[in-house]
Every structure is written in structure tokens, then in C-alpha cells.
UniProtKB/TrEMBL annotation:
Signal peptide range in chain numbering: 1-21
Residues of the site described as Transition state stabilizer: 69
Residues engaged in binding Ca(2+) 2: 196, 213, 215, 220
Enzyme Commission code: 1.11.1.-
A single BP term in Gene Ontology: cellular response to oxidative stress
Protein name according to UniProt: Peroxidase
UniProt binding sites for heme b: 195
A GO molecular function held by the record: peroxidase activity
Length: 357
């Protein structure tokens, strides 16, 4: 009965261009507010509005950062050699097994936030994790509009331990692990654009919320620029495992990010993202989509990307932080010079921590 009513609401919009008639069928969603290319996408509009208001508070804050980290820690649990279902939500379905893995330190915070919403909306953890990641990132100015595919079944098994990279892993180990999951060195660097909207709570527990760059609520290329500056200081009580000196007070630098910025296998990609926000944005979008489909059969999923909000642009030009100059850049790419950026005026100031939500 409900289904018949639903069908009665179905509308067909024909888009005719030139001689070829391209017909796009759109479905009117219950409630009359939205239309969708597939009825399976309708419920995600309400979920979107709920989590924007009640998890993310319409900001690019801590819960967005943590939701994005969660997508990686779930998806990278995928290995043709060692097992793991990839982007299947196993980190939530089997949270008692996966959250105690050392590399997942702190990930239980965002799982605790997300689970009531998963239950309330009766969706699978796998779908919810990637939906929340994509919706959350849309609150960060300059971000790409990420894709979302719906229809992941509930995970059948937990991921084995040891598949999530650690910040003290060397470049060879990280590239091998990521390569095992299907990512090229360039895609690894592209995925690390996520660290432009990120902070650490557990690398140095005395300074929770310490960001990886000076603009943790903007999806810009500052992360790629600032990690190339010579490290001179520890914010907090470092060094801690996986941490190296950063160049800015209030910022923390991971050893893995520092090494990837300087290694000949990845440094030119790193520099190309520093030089061009658009390149970085597009590369992140496609690598992120690939990550969200690990272990899934894309043909069984429905493309509901239209539900993801369009992020605001970031109009601030790339720059060196106040007090820094081109001499502070540690040139690593052997085939092209690091680009020139204007330096922010004034004296160097400490970057504030990301406030807890
Ligand atoms: C080489 C691989 C990577 C390593 C070693 C790594 C390591 C880390 C570490 C140590 C933290 C700090 C956690 C804490 O102390 O709270 C962190 C945070 C974060 N990571 Fe990564 N990461 C990697 C790749 C990725 C990828 C591929 C993504 C997403 C696509 C990602 C997204 C994030 C985000 C958004 C945060 C910030 C979380 C927050 O602010 O609460 N990371 N990462």
C-alpha cells in the first residue's frame, strides 16, 4: 500500500538535448521535499539533515575530522593477502575487536557518536561511515564534493590486526601496505590531503586537538606546504613515537607525513599538491571514492552522491605562514623547484587547538 502511494508520487522528467533524447527518471521522495535518481537515495536526505545539525553542528570541526579518519581506518582493513572486508563497516560491527588495535587509538570516540544515528535511521554501519565522512567534509571550505554509494551489507567478519598504517612506519612499509590495498604512491599522497582537516589527540596526550597544519577547518593545500618547512620545534612534550619537529607553534607533525614529503617516491606528488589546490582536491576525490569501495561490488551499490552538499569554495590563496621564507623549505622533489608563495604578514603566532565537540 505504502509502496503504491510511493509509486504514485513518481515523476518522470525528460531532458531533451539536441537530436538525442537523454531521459533521466527522477523519483519524488516521500514528504515532497526532495527528488532523487533512485528511490534508495531518498532516506539519506533526512539522515544528512539530522547529522549536519546533531553531529557536525554544520561545521568543519572535530567530529568531521574524526568521521573522516574513521572512513580510512575501516576501509584500509582490506588485504588480498591477509583478509579484511575493506569499506564494510566492520570497525563498528566488530568494534570490540577492532577498536583495541593500537593504530585505532581514539577511534571509539566517533563510533560512540555515530552508533545511535545508525540505529535511529536503521542503515548499515558501512553505509553510514562513508556517508558521514562525505557529508562532514562538505562543511570544510575548499573541499571536493565527495561521492557516496549506498547499499553495503553488514560486515561478516572483523579486519585482521596490523593493516592500519602507524605514523612511525617507514615509507617503504606504508607504500607496501597501501599498495597491497590497491593504492599507488600518488594515491597515497592524495589520500593524505585529509590531514589538511585534521588534528591529533593521542600522539602527545598532553595537547589534544593539535592540528597538522595552520588551517584545520579549511580543505586547502597548507598541509602540503607547511610539512615541507624545516622542523624546528615540538608543540607539547615531544618527541613521541611517530612525531617529528614541526615548523609552527601549535602544530604537530607526523613522522610519516614528514618522510613522505621528503622521499623520492612521493615528494614530487607532495609538491604538486602544495602547488595546486585544484589538483589536490580532484586527486583526493577520486582516491577517496576508490577507498570507499574497497571490498565492495560497485554494481550492487546505488550512486547517491547527489545527497552530499556542495562545499563552499576556499578563496584564500596558498601562502607561507608569517615568519617563514622560501629558505625554510626543504626541497625534496628532484625534478621541479618548490613553488613560490607570498608570506603572511606579521609575526609568527601559535595555531590554536581544534576545540572538542
Ligand atoms: C600513511 C597513512 C596514515 C597515517 C600513518 C596516519 C596517522 C594518523 C595519526 C597518528 C593521526 C592522529 C590520531 C590522534 O592522535 O588522534 C591521524 C589523524 C587523522 N587522520 Fe590519518 N593517517 C594516515 C592516513 C590517513 C588517511 C588516508 C586518511 C583519510 C582518508 C586520514 C585521516 C585522518 C584524519 C581526518 C585525522 C584527524 C582526526 C581528528 O582530528 O580527530 N589519515 N592520522
Amino acid at each position: 500500500m505504502a509502496f503504491k502511494t510511493f509509486l504514485a508520487l513518481t515523476t518522470v522528467i525528460a531532458t531533451i538535448s539536441g537530436v538525442n533524447a537523454a531521459i533521466t527518471k527522477r523519483v519524488a521522495c516521500p514528504g515532497g521535499k526532495h527528488t532523487a535518481t533512485n528511490a534508495a537515495c531518498c532516506k539519506w536526505f533526512d539522515i544528512r539533515d539530522d547529522i549536519q545539525e546533531n553531529i557536525f553542528e554544520n561545521q568543519c570541526g572535530e567530529d568531521v575530522h574524526e568521521s573522516l579518519r574513521l572512513t580510512f581506518h575501516d576501509a584500509i582493513g582490506f588485504s588480498p593477502k591477509h583478509g579484511g572486508g575493506g569499506a564494510d563497516g566492520s570497525i563498528i560491527t566488530f568494534d570490540e575487536i577492532e577498536t583495541p588495535f593500537p593504530a585505532n587509538n581514539g577511534i571509539d570516540d566517533i563510533i560512540d557518536v555515530q552508533v545511535p544515528f545508525i540505529q535511529k535511521h536503521n542503515v548499515t554501519p558501512g553505509d553510514f561511515i562513508y556517508f558521514a565522512g562525505a557529508v562532514g567534509v562538505s562543511n570544510c571550505a575548499g573541499a571536493p564534493r565527495l561521492n557516496f554509494f549506498a547499499g553495503r551489507p553488514v560486515a561478516k567478519a572483523p579486519s585482521p590486526e596490523g593493516l592500519v598504517p602507524e605514523p612511525f612506519d617507514g615509507v617503504t612499509k606504508i607504500l607496501a601496505r597501501m599498495g597491497d590495498a590497491g593504492f599507488s604512491p600518488e594515491e597515497v599522497v592524495a589520500l593524505l590531503a585529509s590531514h589538511t582537516i585534521a588534528a591529533a589527540d593521542h600522539v602527545d596526550e598532553t595537547i589534544p586537538g593539535t592540528p597538522f597544519d595552520s588551517t584545520p577547518s579549511v580543505f586547502d593545500s597548507q598541509f602540503f606546504i607547511e610539512t615541507q618547512l624545516r622542523g624546528t620545534l615540538f608543540t607539547g612534550t615531544g618527541p613521541h613515537p611517530g612525531q617529528v619537529e614541526s615548523s609552527l607553534k601549535g602544530v604537530i607533525r607526523l613522522q610519516s607525513d614528514s618522510d613522505l614529503a621528503r622521499d623520492s617516491r612521493t615528494s614530487c606528488f607532495w609538491q604538486s599538491f602544495a602547488a595546486n589546490q585544484n589538483t589536490m582536491k580532484n586527486a583526493f576525490k577520486s582516491s577517496f571514492l576508490k577507498m570507499t569501495l574497497l571490498g565492495q561490488n560497485q554494481r550492487r551499490l546505488v550512486d547517491c552522491s547527489e545527497v552530499i552538499p556542495v562545499p563552499k569554495p576556499n578563496n584564500a590563496p596558498a601562502h607561507l605562514p608569517a615568519g617563514a621564507s622560501k629558505n625554510d623549505i626543504e626541497q625534496a622533489c628532484a625534478t621541479a623547484a618548490f613553488p613560490t608563495f607570498p608570506t603572511d604578514p606579521g609575526h609568527a603566532t601559535a595555531v590554536p587547538a581544534v576545540p572538542p565537540q
